[in-house]
């Protein structure tokens, strides 16, 4: 007997047919895809992109006027929070996630002529905020505080001047910046730290932007836990401060459209005892949708006293009014005083009728 071997399309010598080869190729392809780090990375990136797109959609949701008022009322007292120990507050803050969306850099704020007039007053108010809120925080943290103030100037929820933002609520029961009503201003600042704070403020007014906090409008120390924190968008933690912005469209660049008023004023600060005694009603009441306390910038004159002027203000709340004598009265009084001092006029003799 003889055996023959045939090799061709119809041969079974290979042990495989076309269907088997196709099946093996498919298996190999699937295994290759499942074990490919590049493919998985692209897949995860695609999923993450979809999540981010959803998050951006949620973040761009319009906020109703009623919701805006509720948010303002909720955050009207920046120090209001849960009664927790510093350790508990820190743990609670760490449990609140940061936003997955990168912060959009705020538009630069440009204020010319910072050496006198309106510019000098704005510079002083912003320096005070940086110093008393974050004097010994990292440089980036000080810049972030300045950024928050300037962001508020442009947002309709706040006054549209630097001093208006810094001193908002100063003569009410709740101040937006606690240093304006807790007696901090009566303490003499550290000269070196003050100079550094002024540099930070001047740079911010010259257009420097702190990118990490974007359009942040709120912040708090990491050892307290405000009840409003979960309602806002958590952006960054710098030093001991955590920064937030408004949620939805209200925290987006298009909402920061208010024009700078160019009217700056440092108000006279009433004693806290008078503020507490004269307060009534809900301290977090929102009076109008504009939310800006325009009286602060509209009715108060800007500081214009010389540095050598050690006199005080005229307290209009006591009913005092300024009275300027006529020129002839001034001359007559001055002449009489001069005669008294020279001995020509004896007031006692004159008063006795002699």
Radius of gyration: 34 Å
Task: Let me know the number of strands.
Answer: 3
Helix-strand pattern, N to C? HHHHHHHHEEEHHHH
Protein structure class: mainly alpha
**CATH superfamily of the domain at 81-277, please?**
Cell wall hydrolase SleB, domain 1
Q: What is the spatial order of strands in the main beta sheet? A: 1-3-2
- Based on CA inertia axes, which overall geometry fits? elongated
Low-pLDDT parts are 1-14, 37-41, 43-56, 279-318, 347-354
Mean pLDDT: 76
CATH class of the domain at 81-277: Mainly Alpha
CATH architecture of the domain at 81-277: Orthogonal Bundle
> What name does the CATH topology of the domain at 81-277 carry?
Arc Repressor Mutant, subunit A
Query: For the terminal residues, how far apart are their CA atoms?
Result: 173 Å
| Residue fraction in strands | under 5%
Tally of individual helices = 12
What share of the residues lie within helices?
A: 40-55%
Reported for the largest beta sheet, the result is:
3 strands, antiparallel
Describe the structure.
With 354 residues, this protein is mainly alpha-helical. The protein has a domain of 197 residues: Arc Repressor Mutant, subunit A (Orthogonal Bundle). The chain has twelve helices and three strands; from the N terminus they run H-H-H-H-H-H-H-H-E-E-E-H-H-H-H. The protein has a three-stranded antiparallel β-sheet, with helices on one face. A hairpin with a 2-residue loop joins strand 2 and strand 3. Helix 6 crosses helix 8.
